[in-house]
Design goal:
It contains 9 helices and 12 strands. It is α/β, with parallel strands linked by helices and 366 residues long. A 4-stranded mixed beta sheet has the order 1-7-6-5. The structure holds flavin-adenine dinucleotide.
Length: 366
């Protein structure tokens, strides 16, 4: 145990501090700024978008009703789609509202098998980053990238407890921000947890994933099916541990973007997250090698370009010390919560990937 004491400079005193600039953070910050609040956004990455840009998501889940194809979410989300220029000719949200879209960005769409009367809708990470910068600036929100929230200073107790300052770390060192209101959009509930707010952790967390891109491979739904078959056989033969899908997208005609890696671990545990990054890279190359062995389309494929590990609902428990090749080692069963950091795990369960059905399913094809 070490005690650290330092007087921190107050870097800003905004009306609203938005912590995290994923989709939720962008929406919250734009809405606050447009309503006249002095708004500051802090984001640990050098760009906005969170999962959508850092891990890579090609589809906008929930934006469109898959049965009718109609847009069911408006607001900043729809404005972002317009600003990103994803639909040629549609430059504002009103135009998008009148259209009908495909479900998401899977390869059925890349292969241009778009149902009649529907329009292809696939995200683009780089366009998202630029559009987010612009929508935040236009709205009047200030942004500090490469700035991580590391703690909070609270005043009061019980239901009267309030966050006085949010402690951040960046290349300027440690500092704090004294906002009137804090919006926690970290995806992990970092701010709320450090402030002592109660939270739940799932017993059976959805695995983390690391998406990767392979160049010089002609994407098609048929290839995706064959890729799935190779992984199924490799898993059955014990050559590959937990995996999902694979689900494939494509941002260019001669590449595939792959969501297949599945890593058991707790994304808020620094050790486990680091092991997940390492194991994710191992699995990425393993999957690529399996496809190269069996599928001629991958012979000249350009090795996987990887993104970061992403995990859904990361305040969750896990445990798999004796698990398959792609379980993240190093954490004793029942560990993971750190009372010192006010991140207790509620319960833990021992799971082996063979008993872990979630996400271990073939990709759904239309
Ligand atoms: C493997 C996987 C695949 C998915 N596929 C899709 C898909 O195809 N389409 C889809 O629509 N959804 C998909 N989702 C769901 C999607 O990821 C979430 O719905 C979405 O990311 C939630 O947005 P958010 O802004 O709340 O969180 P996030 O996207 O996680 O954003 C949180 C932001 O906060 C930042 N941050 C975190 N902690 C701190 C801190 N302490 N200080 C400063 N900044 C911090 C992060 O860097 C990040 O930018 C997927 C999720 C996973 C895990």
């Amino acid at each position: 145990m070490a005690t650290f004491s330092k007087t921190l400079p107050v870097l800003a005193t905004p009306d609203v501090l938005v912590c995290g600039a994923g989709c939720a953070g962008v929406g919250a910050a734009v809405a606050a700024a447009r309503n006249g609040a002095q708004t500051l956004v802090v984001e640990r990455c050098g760009f906005a978008g969170g999962f959508l840009t850092a891990v890579i998501g090609a589809g906008f889940d929930g934006l469109v009703d898959s049965r009718s194809g109609r847009v069911v979410v408006g607001g900043v989300a729809l404005e972002m789609v317009a600003r990103m220029g994803l639909v040629p000719g549609a430059t504002d949200a009103a135009q998008l509202r009148g259209m009908r879209f495909t479900r998401n960005a899977d390869l059925v769409i890349a292969a241009r098998q778009v149902a009649e009367g529907r329009t292809h809708l696939c995200s683009d990470p780089e366009k998202f980053k630029l559009a987010a910068d612009r929508i935040l600036a236009d709205g009047g929100a200030r942004v500090l990238y490469h700035t991580q929230v590391v703690d909070v200073i609270t005043a009061g107790t019980g239901t009267d407890a309030r966050i006085g300052e949010v402690v951040v770390a960046n290349k300027g060192g440690l500092g704090c921000i004294r906002p009137k209101v804090v919006v926690d959009c970290t995806g992990d509930g970092d701010v709320a947890a450090w402030a002592g707010a109660p939270f739940d952790l799932f017993e059976r967390p959805q695995p983390m994933s690391l998406h990767f891109r392979i160049g010089k491979v002609p994407a098609s739904p048929q290839l995706q099916q064959r890729c799935a078959e190779v992984l199924r056989r490799a898993h059955a033969a014990g050559r590959l541990g937990l995996y999902g899908g694979p689900w494939m997208s494509s941002f260019a005609p001669d590449e595939v973007y792959v969501n297949a890696v599945r890593l058991l671990g707790l994304g808020i545990d620094p050790e486990q997250l680091s092991r997940a990054e390492q194991q994710g890279r191992e699995d990425t190359w393993r999957i690529f090698a399996l496809w190269q062995e069996e599928l001629p389309e991958f012979r000249h494929g350009h090795g996987p370009g990887r993104r970061h590990c992403g995990s859904p609902g990361r305040r969750q428990g896990w445990g798999d010390p004796g698990g398959p090749p792609n379980s993240v080692p190093g954490t004793p069963p029942g560990a993971g919560g750190d009372p010192e950091n006010r991140r207790p795990l509620k319960t833990q369960s021992q799971e082996r990937s063979a008993d872990f059905p979630l996400d271990m399913v073939p990709a759904p094809y239309l």
